[in-house]
Design goal:
Layout: H1 2-52, E1 59-64, E2 67-72, H2 73-121
Antiparallel strand pairs: 1-2
Helix pairs in contact: 1-2
Length: about 120
């Protein structure tokens, strides 16, 4: 009887450890994505600041793949603002996801600790 309980505890412990490691990796990935999106946002903001100093009738080249397209300052300005807004939204989503994942890791650690304590108590 005690052997089957030990086996079940080991199995549950292993599953919790795997789930915890997986969740930690997802949280690290979310951190990397947040950093990347922050750089995109910063780049768009700096480019926007450079463009605003130009006269309104200025036409600029935008790199699209391997081509360059001549566009108005206003069109490029709108694209930069959209890029910033999209990056902000994605950053908020990822931060919420990261908080959830960190909470999951904490709960898994607590569960593992409880399992160990209950095993020692027996």
């Amino acid at each position: 009887m005690a052997a089957t309980i030990d086996l079940e505890l080991k199995k549950a412990f292993s599953e919790l450890q795997v789930k915890m490691i997986d969740t930690q990796q997802k949280a690290k990935l979310a951190d990397l994505q947040i950093d990347q999106l922050t750089r995109v946002h910063k780049h768009a903001k700096l480019t926007h600041a450079e463009i605003t100093t130009l006269p309104d009738n200025t036409r600029l080249y935008e790199g699209v793949g391997r081509m360059f397209i001549l566009q108005s300052k206003e069109e490029i300005n709108n694209q930069l603002m959209d890029k910033q807004k999209t990056a902000d939204e994605k950053i908020k989503e990822l931060e919420q996801k990261k908080v959830y994942l960190e909470r999951s890791v904490k709960e898994a650690e607590d569960n593992i600790r409880e399992m160990l304590l209950s095993r020692r108590a027996q």
